Amino acid sequence: MLQIGTTAPAFELPDASMELVRLSSFRGKKNVVLYFYPKDGSPVCTKEAIEFSDHEDEFAECNTVVFGVSRDDCLMHEEFRVKHGISLQLLSDAECEVSRMYQVLKEQANEQGVQRGIQRCTFVIDKKGVLRHILTDLNPREHVREVLKVVRQLHGH
Prior knowledge:
Helix content is 30%, strand content 29%. The protein is of the alpha/beta class and 157 residues long. A five-stranded mixed β-sheet has the order 5-4-3-8-9. Strands 1-2 form a two-stranded antiparallel ribbon. β6 (105-110) and β7 form a beta hairpin. The chain is globular, with a radius of gyration of 15 Å.
């Protein structure tokens, strides 16, 4: 498991517009909330994405950007964003490279091969690129509120 106080693994992933997002581009500028979720369109994932979007201004006040990461491709992300009015950036980790680095990939062998899934997990990374908080096993109804509380503490509110 990744450890609080260590440097967050660097990554580069495409967003719904197929623009590359690099963690390094926020170093020295903004805190980053990176939340991993299983799939676009599922009830819990949809609620989370809408909640994060609804609180985007509050995260911005704390000099923080929020990114959702799943295995869905860029086109699926764009359809999901449009359908539900989601404003935050969703990143495509179709090859599961970043999910492996952040140790949130669940793999299970069965007759059809290997099933892959993403564990719901949120990482708060400070402006220096250091992991400040790792949130797992969150109640979906409290998730965004808990992350916002952590970000406010980090920002000094």
